[in-house]
Amino acid sequence: MEFPTKRMRRLRKSPQIRDILRETRLHSSDIIYPIFVSEKLEGGEPESIDTMPGQYRYSVDDAVSEASRLEDEGLSAVLLFGMPSTKDEFASSAYDPDGAVQRTVRRLKEETELVVMTDVCLCQYTTHGHCGIVVDGEVVNDETLDVLARIALSHAEAGADVVAPSDMMDGRVAAIRRALDDAGFSDTLIMSYAVKYASAFYAPFRDAVSSAPAFGDRRSYQMDPANVSEALMEAELDLKEGADILMVKPALAYLDVIEAVKDRFRVPLAAYNVSGEYSMLRAAIDSGYLTEEAIYESILSIKRAGADLIISHFAPELLGVI
């Protein structure tokens, strides 16, 4: 008698059989592409990011062109990050209706069918680089909430389908939901960075958007990488406050957390395949240590762990194989 597993392995040599037996599948609608939009590049060429080979900072025009090109290849959604021309202590440029993110949102909604998501945070827009308002050298939670709500509202007014607070301040989902509802944007979704760890894997991103803290670190408001129960608590609190989509960030180093959150809460779950995860794999491929197939395998592992949506800088490569 032949064991079923041995027979299955033999049958999977056929691409058709392998396809119908596949348990986990990636689809282009699972993938969200992060795009960096800089006010400093108006009229200029895209600017390569040294710590993220293959990734660029774009002007508004070029961001729209790139997003439109990827839409033709099957992309369904983008997540926008803004880079202002001026910064201050209060991130006032983050809610400027003529800011880079707001203008890009309006153009994308006019010219594409993409789902447009926007990152809501202060770090790129403040002189100190922290995700909240700073008073006497400390990041103050409650004073930050009004600013976050104002940023989210400016994105919704521009036409964003989804706002994504990444700051990790307590109560920010409730503050944003209240501001959106009061202004008549009850259909604007909130994708909460509910489980965001204080991770070393963010370093290339901070270089890309010039958001490294000028002092201290973010461990007082981002999560300890050792904690899983805390992740479940944070996710539950954000759901109660009105989050429509939860997110775990980073992804590859936290597959167990993705699985735990999905098992506990049967709601849409995103995972961010962050800059450091991108850069280390990109470097291994460019050095010849790995092949491009490692990209698909890595992203598949995130989907298999339980993520419904995957934010990844590898989106252009993935669209060609899924």
Automatic annotation (TrEMBL):
UniProt-listed Enzyme Commission number(s): 4.2.1.24
Keywords, sorted A to Z: Heme biosynthesis, Lyase, Magnesium, Metal-binding, Porphyrin biosynthesis, Zinc
Lineage: Archaea, Methanobacteriati, Methanobacteriota, Methanomada group, Methanobacteria
UniProt keyword Acyltransferase present: no
UniProt-recorded Gene Ontology molecular function terms: porphobilinogen synthase activity; zinc ion binding
GO annotation terms (biological process): protoporphyrinogen IX biosynthetic process
Enzyme class: lyase
Record-annotated active site: K196 (schiff-base intermediate with substrate), K249 (schiff-base intermediate with substrate)
Name of the molecule in the record: Delta-aminolevulinic acid dehydratase
Reactions catalysed according to its record: 2 5-aminolevulinate = porphobilinogen + 2 H2O + H(+)
Residues given in the record as Zn(2+) binding sites: C121, C123, C131
Pfam assignment, any one: ALAD
PROSITE patterns from the UniProt entry: D_ALA_DEHYDRATASE (PS00169)
Similarity annotation: Belongs to the ALAD family.
Signal sequence range: none
